[in-house]
Amino acid sequence: MALLNLIKERDSIVNNKSTAPGIIEAKKRTWEEIVLKFNALNPDQQPRSSKQLKRSYDHVKRKCLS
């Protein structure tokens, strides 16, 4: 749920389908912000990478949000 809440705040960037260079860079920065906040909210867990969090989000989107 923490991941979904962090993404919800940045939904317009995370779910933007554009491939424009500015959007791609904004997505990278946004995912890094999400990683930092997610790891700060879960200090007792092993730190997650942006790749791991993206995969988790994609899985949740496919299973629950469709």
From TrEMBL:
Transmembrane segments: none annotated. Coiled coil: none annotated. Residues 3-63 form the Myb/SANT-like DNA-binding domain. Residues 44-66 are annotated as: Disordered. Pfam families: Myb_DNA-bind_5 (PF13873). Involved in transvection phenomena (= synapsis-dependent gene expression), where the synaptic pairing of chromosomes carrying genes with which zeste interacts influences the expression of these genes. Zeste binds to DNA and stimulates transcription from a nearby promoter. Self-associates forming complexes of several hundred monomers. This is Regulatory protein zeste. The lineage of its organism: Eukaryota, Metazoa, Ecdysozoa, Arthropoda, Crustacea.
